[in-house]
Amino acid sequence: MNLIVLLLLSGGILLTAYFTYGKFVANKLKISNKNITPAHTHEDGVDYIPSKTPVVLGHHFASIAGAGPIIGPIIAVAFGWIPAVIWILVGGIFFGAVHDLTSMVASMRHEGKSIGMIIQKYIGQHGKRLFLIFSFATLILVIGVFADIIAKTFVNDPSVASSSILFVVLAIVFGLVNKTTGNKKGAFLVTSVIGVVLMYYFVYLGTQMPFLLDYKVWIVLLMVYAFIASVTPISFLLQPRDYLNSFLLYGLMIFAVIGIFVANPEIKMDNQVQLNAENLGYLFPVLFVTIACGAISGFHSLVASGTTSKQIDQEKDAKVIGYGGMLIESFLAILSVGAVIVISRTEYASRLVSEGPVTMFADGLGGMIASTGISATLATTFVALTVSAFALTTLDTCTRLARFTFQEYFEDVDHKAGKLFATNRYLATFTVVVCAVLLLTSGEFTTLWPIFGSANQLLAALALLAVAVWLIKRKVKPTFVLIPMFFMFAVTLSSLLLFAIQNFNKGVYVLSILAGLLFGLSVVLVVLARNSLKKELNKPEKALEGA
How many angstroms separate the most distant Cα atoms in the chain? Predict the structure, then answer.
């Protein structure tokens, strides 16, 4: 079997799913442009801004993608490429895309608030506080880890730093020009073409003018950048940068597909399925925790209900942004698998340890892109730079999401300090940045990161739980949400239990206790949801549409 066949089958399945199952989910949610979106009802020029569909899709896709759909699938190939591909397709269509779209629509029906606020309304105040604390801690961890990764990348490859700085300047100019031209016919298309051309030119320009700075200086600059990106209007920096950056990933995927068709590589890896992969564990539940962003990721619900839901112009745009955005990411995950299954299992295992998944991805796809006549060095550098650019996207989006989460926690607090945190975005963002810096300086993020996979999938299960309770109270049969919810709870609880036992046996008691606490959190929220439904399920509710 060659890689082209796998690519065509996967692409065909994902495209068919968008027009069939995607339509089914949209109909169940009663998505209609008659429902005015929060971007209009709460428009404030900072967070709530109605925006064009391609711009919001670019922001959403750039924010949820990052390096997740690359690293996870490549590591998971250790279990066998067939189970990895099956989970990406099944998970993306029936789990991840449903999770993302339902989270987005649920948020839009609740004034653009996060999943935590939806939990408060339908499960209770305690449930909301537990979820927001957990979300905030997870986001701070992500900010710390990605700031460390980006700073080290900038130190090791100064050309990436130069290109990234040029991207930021370009995004600001792009945002200002679009604001000035407004809705003039054809203006957005013209500025988009110019912006994308300049962005690709800056990829080359960055290699000609490397920017050298110390690691600690980069950390400070990255935190300052994250602060600015969080407090300024989303149309000033975050939105245009994500929109333009998304074309890096679109371009990467297009070039990769063309390269695969030209090179026509054979799949050299065997079809063997490993039920217990070395250094990873058992296929269940580890495979489903390792491949997160390519199939289903709880982080997506934070983006969908955090920044994206506040920018959607018309409610029907949610399908292409939420459901479609997830399927594009699933296809990227398929490309990631394809980048490594063209080598033998022995070579894969050796290189995974010595080089890491990002380098393997860059070399694999870079080599295929080079078959089109592009320099192999330039192709590989372009792939690596694209991955790094999206790490920066994750950093600034997470800072804004952590600010939202922090402010929502204090929204219903009576004392003055709480109200100040809830209303002052500068103070809230400063708190987020301080927490991230403290985590970075302590070095604890390296210890806590191994539990992130389980924590991330727990977020997905909890988001689906909140959506399911909302749908049940709106008299909508939530089977399409309950099945992925139950499965993700089974995955999460199993992985957390195994993680707690393994670390307890190793004497790593901090991680063992943390895993136990997360296990308890999920159980408590399930019990709270059950009690809420038991008390109020029979109360008269408004129809789903417009609710």
Answer: 67
